[in-house]
């Protein structure tokens, strides 16, 4: 595929509100363009200036950028510590400023100042050291959205220990795979978490996941719910037994700029999740700088990003970026609809939230509940809104703009990825006019382009593949344990030395970028990345399944929903029973986020003569569309008719 047809034609444009613009860090498009051009022409100089002013260093670097194409090293020779940048350096100037306002789902609120957070991080870091954890080790974290999660993450950073946070919605199997791949020595978890008024028994899942995993020597358990759990003697330790007695002093481990800060698993176009590796200095710089400018941060702000720390958005824009900037961060544990659909708006009112950063899927579900919910709350503290994770449809954008932002708040539609570490394309809110559904302009130092498969640049309004032409500090450095895969998937797909994003996009005649979605086998379900092959391998691991093909189909709230075409083994009986069983099986293998919306039993899958499944046809079928494309490569045309017939039966 070379060109992508863009069907969305949105022509509305919203200039920055005057009152916002006059107080913004960057106040005009001219100012933005001048800085962007400077950074493009002199990337070394630009990033060196920023690194010197944004970060606190133990030792200055000698070489700003060493690179071989897209394989890059930044600030070589420099040393620093990420937890010092997020905590220690604020203590003299604003130690008593609130760092975290944490609201649990049951409603209790805890506030931690920078000084208190620092103290807790030091104690936990000392606790980890007492368990023999040291620089270079990996600690896995599987926790609810409570302050102890942030504390655990920063305690790892303090010791130069890589954290691997696994979203607490993933299944035991998914947690096991990640811990095995990462060779995690310690797992930090909780007895459970609150979700929609119920307790999710996290520790039970952890116990299941650890059967047969030899690397994990200890499990540190934070008591969140108080529900009874099993503790394995010799392996499991309570947080409240180990942490409180630790010293409040912990000398931070000074690490090299390129020392890996963390691992975060994400789905790729093959079945095996990849451990994306981010390093210390470049990542911190990218998250702090983008957070400051794109959210137009001010010292008095009370900033809330609803993402779970189990995803990259939580790493970059709940923890590292905001804390590096000394921000007051709101953290919420639970569901948006508990006890009712007013919860988010209530949190905004209660804590005086100034920036609200969330996902289009959440906006669409909140919109569906009607305007009466937000209308009950005072949202006047808000001054900026943000979205991330998937394209936002204009209808949801306009609702967000009118009903939540009251037309007064700019919306920053931020495009980026686990791999990019920080936001790459987004409007600077005081400078760039926004357009519903458009991520607009690249951040300073980011040079995107739209190309065809051969790497040739395409013109305005020609849909194509989104690439990044220059390395940037917060980009991934490798895939854990598989550097070849890193090179193959990101650096070698498109000829020329460019980073391939896996997304399609177009640039309009104003120079604004519109993201068109994934061009590979990655689904975006409710803003979560899932690989079709990961779900397929979960399905075929069931004894009744012979073959499976998974595609996305349009879904009004979640963006995409999972639709599976399955052929069965000889003796298996298709029917409601098996359907239910297969859905549960996928949830067990991956987690509730991968629950198939639909499973269709078919006689055979449509394949090319070379045996490749023709997903394009399945996507059309799943969406209930006419098959329009070329079917001449289909091995057996009759297959299509039988699937069509089966689909028609399902529709009845
Ligand atoms: O397809 C793009 C989509 O989400 C993908 C990255 O997913 P993940 O690594 O899980 O990170 C999500 C949070 C950064 C991208 O390749 N995506 C992300 N943000 C946007 C988006 N698509 C359109 N508009 C966005 N603002």
Word description of this protein:
This protein has 652 residues and is an alpha/beta fold. The protein has a domain at 539-651: 2-Layer Sandwich (GMP Synthetase, Chain A, domain 3), CATH 3.30.300. It has 20 helices and 30 strands. The strands form eight sheets. The protein has an eight-stranded mixed sheet with strand order 12-11-8-6-7-14-15-23, sandwiched between helices. It has a seven-stranded mixed sheet with strand order 5-4-17-16-18-19-20, with helices on both faces. A four-stranded antiparallel sheet has the order 21-22-24-25. Helix 10 crosses helix 11 and helix 13 (360-368) crosses helix 15 (394-404). The longest helix has 17 residues, at 114-130. Bound molecules: adenosine-5'-monophosphate-propyl ester. Adenosine-5'-monophosphate-propyl ester binds at residues 266, 312-313, 388-391, 413-418, 439, 501-503, 515, 517-518, 524, 529.
List the helices and strands and how they pair.
Elements: H1 18-23, H2 29-41, H3 43-54, E1 63-68, E2 71-76, E3 79-80, H4 82-94, E4 98-103, E5 109-113, H5 114-130, E6 138-142, H6 147-159, E7 162-165, H7 172-182, E8 186-190, E9 193-195, E10 198-200, H8 202-210, E11 218-222, E12 236-238, H9 239-242, E13 255-256, E14 260-266, E15 274-279, H10 280-294, E16 302-305, H11 312-324, E17 328-332, H12 343-351, E18 355-358, H13 360-368, H14 372-375, E19 384-388, H15 394-404, E20 411-414, E21 448-451, E22 464-468, E23 478-479, H16 483-491, E24 499-507, E25 513-518, E26 522-525, E27 528-531, H17 532-540, E28 545-555, E29 559-568, H18 576-589, E30 598-601, H19 615-622, H20 637-651
Parallel strand pairs: 4-17, 6-7, 6-8, 7-14, 8-11, 11-12, 16-17, 16-18, 18-19, 19-20, 29-30
Antiparallel strand pairs: 1-2, 3-13, 4-5, 9-10, 14-15, 15-23, 21-22, 22-24, 24-25, 26-27, 28-29
Helix pairs in contact: 2-3, 4-5, 4-6, 4-11, 5-6, 7-8, 10-11, 13-15
Bound molecules: adenosine-5'-monophosphate-propyl ester (PRX).
Adenosine-5'-monophosphate-propyl ester (PRX) binds next to helix 11, strand 20, strand 24 and strand 25.
């Amino acid at each position: 595929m070379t060109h992508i047809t863009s069907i969305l034609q949105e022509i509305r444009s919203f200039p920055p509100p005057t009152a916002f613009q006059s107080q913004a860090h960057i106040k005009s498009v001219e100012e933005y363009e001048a800085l962007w051009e400077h950074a493009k022409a002199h990337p070394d100089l630009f990033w060196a200036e920023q690194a010197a002013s944004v970060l606190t260093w133990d030792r200055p670097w000698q070489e700003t950028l060493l690179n071989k194409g897209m394989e890059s090293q930044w600030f070589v020779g420099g040393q620093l510590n990420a937890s010092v940048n997020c905590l220690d350096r604020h203590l003299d100037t604003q130690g008593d400023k609130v760092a975290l306002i944490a609201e649990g789902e049951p409603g209790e609120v805890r506030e931690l100042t920078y000084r208190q957070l620092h103290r807790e991080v030091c104690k936990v870091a000392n606790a980890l050291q007492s368990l023999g954890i040291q620089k270079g080790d990996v600690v896995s974290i599987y926790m609810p959205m409570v302050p102890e999660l942030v504390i655990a993450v920063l305690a790892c950073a303090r010791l130069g220990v890589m954290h691997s946070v696994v979203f607490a919605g993933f299944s035991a199997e998914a947690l096991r795979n990640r811990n095995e791949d990462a060779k995690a020595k310690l797992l930090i978890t909780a007895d459970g978490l609150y979700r929609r008024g119920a307790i999710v028994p996290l520790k039970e899942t952890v116990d299941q996941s650890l059967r047969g995993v030899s690397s994990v020597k200890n499990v540190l358990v934070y008591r969140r719910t108080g529900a009874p759990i099993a503790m394995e003697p010799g392996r499991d330790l309570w947080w409240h037994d180990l942490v409180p007695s630790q010293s409040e002093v912990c000398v931070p481990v000074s690490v090299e700029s390129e020392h890996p800060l963390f691992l975060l698993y994400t789905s790729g176009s093959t079945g095996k999740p990849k451990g994306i590796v981010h390093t210390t200095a470049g990542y911190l710089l990218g998250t702090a700088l983008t957070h400051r400018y794109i959210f137009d941060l001010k010292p008095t702000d009370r900033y809330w990003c609803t993402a779970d720390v189990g995803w990259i958005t939580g790493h970059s824009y709940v923890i590292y970026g905001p804390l590096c900037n000394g921000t007051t961060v709101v953290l919420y544990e639970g569901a948006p609809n508990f006890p009712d659909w007013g919860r988010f708006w209530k949190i905004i009112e209660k804590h005086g939230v100034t920036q609200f950063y969330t996902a289009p899927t959440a906006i669409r579900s909140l919109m569906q509940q009607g305007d009466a919910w937000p209308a009950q709350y005072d949202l006047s503290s808000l001054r900026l809104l943000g979205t991330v994770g998937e394209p936002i449809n204009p209808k949801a954008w306009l609702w967000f703009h009118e009903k939540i932002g009251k037309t007064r708040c700019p919306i920053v539609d931020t495009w980026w990825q686990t791999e990019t570490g920080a936001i790459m394309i987004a409007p600077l809110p005081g400078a760039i006019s926004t357009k519903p559904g458009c991520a607009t302009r690249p951040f300073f130092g980011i040079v995107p382009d739209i190309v065809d498969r051969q790497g040739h640049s395409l013109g305005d309004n020609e849909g194509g593949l989104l690439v990044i032409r220059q390395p940037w500090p917060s980009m991934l450095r490798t895939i854990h344990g598989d550097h070849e895969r890193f090179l193959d998937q990101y650096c070698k797909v498109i000829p020329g030395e460019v980073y391939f994003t896996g997304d399609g996009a177009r640039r309009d005649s104003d120079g604004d970028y519109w993201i068109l979605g994934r061009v590979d086998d990655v689904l975006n379900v409710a803003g979560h990345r899932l690989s079709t092959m990961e779900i397929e391998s979960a399905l075929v691991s069931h004894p009744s399944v012979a073959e499976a093909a998974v595609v996305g189909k349009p879904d009004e709230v979640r963006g995409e929903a999972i639709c599976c075409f399955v052929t069965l083994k000889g003796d298996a009986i298709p029917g409601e029973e098996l359907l239910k069983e297969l859905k549960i099986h996928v949830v067990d293998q991956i987690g509730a986020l991968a629950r198939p919306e639909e499973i269709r039993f078919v006689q055979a899958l449509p394949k090319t003569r070379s045996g490749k499944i023709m997903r394009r046809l399945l996507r059309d079928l799943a969406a209930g569309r006419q098959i329009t494309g070329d079917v001449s490569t289909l091995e057996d045309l009759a297959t299509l008719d039988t699937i069509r017939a089966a689909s028609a039966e399902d529709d009845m």
